[in-house]
Amino acid sequence: MKKYTYIITVITLSILMTSCGNDEKKVVADNTPPIVVKVNAVQEDGNNPFVTASGKVQAENSADLSTRMMGYVNKTHVNVGDKVRKGQLLISINNSDLQAKRAQVNASITEATAAYNNAEKDYIRFKNLFADNSASQKEVDDMTAHFEMAKARLEAANQMKNEINSQFKYTNITAPFSGVITSKNIEAGDMANPGMPLISVEAPGKYEVMAMVPESEISQIKKGTEVDVVVKSINQTIKGKVTEVSTSAKNTGGQFLVKVALDKTDAKILSGMFTTVQFPVAKKATASTMVLIPTSAIVERGQLTGVYTVSQSNTAVLRWLRLGRTFGDNVEVLSGLSADESYIVSAEGKLFNGAKISIQ
């Protein structure tokens, strides 16, 4: 009986100690000072003067080089970032099999040439004999056919040599124009396969932007329109002109491709930079009011984007959003935030879901 009493006493003490510990943690948590934050009210914009579209910078003159031949790479003669001139050798692919075929073709040409010369002599000889009534028409016809066949075999051998010579061009990859090497996807000893991009080159200095315009706005975009292109990474705006407007979105997911040629500029732009193209055309009257928030307030967690909002009990609440187009330093919120809410733009500490906050 005493044994059981002892066990119950120990359990009771353990429960009391645990409760006290929890109460102590709770007191510590309750005494944590709130994080001072700044908040903004949701901004609505229904009168934005621009039709905008996201795009990416690319060089006007660029090429991804590949080969039609399969073979091992003997040597890569350049590296990424190297400047090259037109016709410069970039990659050498092993061509020993082509050399063997060329030797065979050369031997065939030698044989066909000898047969052709002999057939030509016989043809001329029998024509003269026929003129002197010393050969029959049948003999002349046979010599003529023999001569024509020898001539055809020689021509076929020469054309086969041309084919082999053209294949040699695909074992020596050269620069199609002067420019800079932007990527290299193969090294010496690797196997080059037909159609596989081996090396990329582009001519710097002239750039363009490929923008995706939604179907609701594409009818307003015209060729020759002057536009502003905002390059986000360098925070600069560059002038440009629309050079191409696609009339089909069959293979682009409902978005229409628009090509914009950028004016010459001293800005440090590079291929692959993301941009926002602002087309100076009025939005349609049916366009809905946009909800805009600054991009600096956006929180990213993997592929999810959100923003911290304020709850009724003054705690931070992470709200996931679906974002749309970018307008300078602001981004459009398609869903997840309404016009009667506030969001946190900065904090004097690390925010997390449920953190106590104090609005400055």
Automatic annotation (TrEMBL):
Q: Name one GO molecular function term.
A: efflux transmembrane transporter activity
Taking every annotated instance into account, which residue ranges of this chain make up the domain CusB-like beta-barrel? 210-279
Where is the organism placed in the taxonomic lineage, from the top?
A: Bacteria, Pseudomonadati, Bacteroidota, Flavobacteriia, Flavobacteriales
Q: Which residues form the Multidrug resistance protein MdtA-like barrel-sandwich hybrid domain?
A: 62-196
User: Where does this protein come from, organism-wise?
Assistant: Urechidicola croceus
Concerning PROSITE patterns, the annotation shows: PROKAR_LIPOPROTEIN (PS51257)
Where would one find the signal peptide in this protein?
none
Q: Which GO terms describe its cellular component?
A: efflux pump complex
- Report what the protein is called: Efflux transporter periplasmic adaptor subunit
